[in-house]
Amino acid sequence: MKTANIASTTLRHSESGLVWEEKITNGTGSIEVLPYSTFRVRAAGACTVYIDGVLAMTMVSGEIAIFNAGRGNQDDSKATITVTIAAANAFVQVARDKDRQV
């Protein structure tokens, strides 16, 4: 039996799409995302990306990366995961699953 790993439970990318919502525009700071959320970061300068306090990636200016937030820190009781952009500015978009139109 095949299983899906996205909220829309589709099995193939052709059956679903993502809507990107910009949460940080050319800045630094933190956002809260749901577990297993997809987000992308475009570095405007040399920056670091932390997921629940754990260094996920050090990026150089112009670099783009797509992340999965994972389960987060299992030792805290938060329902969300903190994504932090530090050191230099970045553009951060969070993906929201969107079912295809029928």
Give your account of this protein's structure.
Strands 1, 2, 3, 4, 5 and 6 form a 6-stranded antiparallel beta sheet that branches. 18% of the residues are buried. The chain has strands at residues 16-33, 38-43, 47-51, 54-59, 64-68, 81-99. Helices cover 0% and strands 58% of the residues. It is built from no helices and 6 strands. The model has no long low-confidence stretch (mean pLDDT 84). The protein has one domain (16-99): Jelly Rolls, CATH 2.60.120. The chain is globular. Strand 3 (47-51) and strand 4 (54-59) form a beta hairpin. The chain is mainly β and 102 residues long.
Q: What are the key terms here?
A:
single chain, 102 residues, mainly beta, 58% strand
Provide a brief overview of the structure.
The chain has 102 residues and is mainly beta. The protein has strands at residues 16-33, 38-43, 47-51, 54-59, 64-68, 81-99.
The percent of residues in helical segments reads under 10%
Largest sheet: 6 strands, antiparallel
Strand fraction: over 45%
> What is the arithmetic mean of pLDDT?
84
Topology as a string of helices (H) and strands (E): EEEEEE
